[in-house]
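Hi Q.,

Before the meeting this afternoon, I wanted you to have the alpha-D-galactopyranose prediction in hand. No need to reply - just skim if you have a minute. The sequence and ligand are here:
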Amino acid sequence: MKEQLIASFRARYGRDPAVIARAPGRLEFIGNHTDYNGGTVLGVSIDRSVWVAVAPRAEAEWRLGSETHAGTITVPAADAPAKQSGAARWANYPLGVIAALPKFGLRRPAGFDFLAVSDLPSGAGLSSSAALELASALAFLALSGQQAPRETVVQLCRSAENNFVGVPCGVLDQGVSGFGREHHLVFIDCRGPKFATVPLPEAARFWVFNTHTKHALVDGLYAARHRECMAAAKALGVALLADATPASVLAARDRLPPLEFKRARHVVEEIARVDATVLALRAGDLVAAGKLLTASHRSSQTLFENSTPELDFLVDQLVSAPHVFGARLSGGGFGGAVMAVTSPEFMDAQATAVADAYARRFGSRPEVLRAQTGDGAGLV
Ligand code: GLA
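Predicted structure with the ligand bound:
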């Protein structure tokens, strides 16, 4: 990717980049919609990334290009950038980072040329947007000769997503891209937030089945779940749902509106599953961890109601196949991808059988990706 990026940068801007940064995509291992509720979550950074190259520019302009989008966007470098729309919308991720820098005591870069390339599919639930934010932030900081703690970079990128792009996401995607480590999972206690890594048992393999389906209202549905969780916390008399427990939520069943009860129950039980998964992984018990992953999916399906028939079908197929420890939707839901954790004996033939069954049922094939763990974001 690096050579391709340098060659494309030269072709577009007629000179070499000064800085290159890379940030990986992530899988949500377990912890569905726990992050913005102050809970815990486990994610894994994968071996596919977004790469960003930048070079200073004499004119006070930020010029942004992406190999996956046509055209180059030019923005005056003086003030806070304006939000882009239409085909230029992808640029809101790097521009959102620029907009957020002063909030974190950091300077905006002077004029630059920017190019992004990626071997991370977008729209597959692998957080290509967080990867673009992280790679952009590291490139901008290096270009302007600034340093910031990794926690700050992660928070800066989340702020870009929350306040500039306008998605009320938690810290999972940016945190995993920022703190990932090969052969490890990233554990985040989202209150704080605090980041740690947990070794991944050697036998674990990751498969991603991307349905290429996306609910038309996915952003609105995510925001609606966020609102429902906050309303449930208020009704329970806690600041965030992570302050409640499975027992306290069950005890409040009659006091809560049925919908809020279901959302709250999912979140508090999911947090308990995350903590149980960490214990299972530390004991090297992938069978126990896998059962927790599948239980997480069932809770998303019935209580949080962010699954779809396509995702449920894939999970049903996968968990009844040999060599599969567990399977679940990964990320926001309402379409997107299912992740399976398998032993090394699960091979292409098994994955193809699952994809064939899906094609017979839904008339289109899911994209099948074999993912490996990879290191978190960094300068190249
Ligand atoms: C999306 C968001 C994350 C998290 C997950 C659901 O990926 O970006 O912050 O809320 O959904 O767990």
